[in-house]
Specification:
This is Leucine rich repeat containing 48. Helix 1 packs antiparallel against helix 3. Helices cover about 85% and strands about 0% of the residues. The protein has helices spanning about 1-30, 35-40, 45-115, 115-120. It is mostly helical. It has a domain at about 1-80.
Length: about 120
């Protein structure tokens, strides 16, 4: 995300430079292009241009920040869910193993109980 912010800052600088150059051309009457009225309304004075470009820059940075927050939230949620699932699976594995051991102990106890004392003496 830092790289996105750096790219946005670079974009902002270039856009501001282009906007100021265009303003100078509009003021001098050297602009050959037909600009829509809403765009031409921005080229009234330098403060208007700087404010418009600054607002655009702020909005872009806000979108980058919001996206970063969303990604971090989703990654943390995924990580919490994954750790919870691993923990649950490990508990189930442990319980199955304990049950298997108890069944083996019960089986061996039954075998011992079924042995006749005469079988031991032979």
């Amino acid at each position: 995300m830092a790289q996105c912010r750096d790219l946005e800052n670079h974009h902002h600088e270039k856009l501001l430079e282009i906007a100021i150059n265009t303003l100078e051309k509009v003021v001098k009457g050297e602009l050959d292009e037909d600009l829509p009225e809403d765009v031409r309304a921005l080229f009234v004075d330098k403060d208007t241009i700087v404010n418009a470009v600054g607002t655009s820059h702020d909005m872009h940075l806000l979108k980058i920040d919001n996206r970063e927050d969303e990604l971090v939230t989703r990654v943390n949620s995924w990580c919490t869910h994954l750790v919870g699932k691993i923990h649950k699976d490990e508990i189930m594995r442990n319980r199955k193993r304990v049950k298997e051991i108890n069944q083996y102990i019960d089986h061996m106890q039954n075998e011992l109980d079924n042995l006749d004392s005469g079988d031991i003496l032979d």
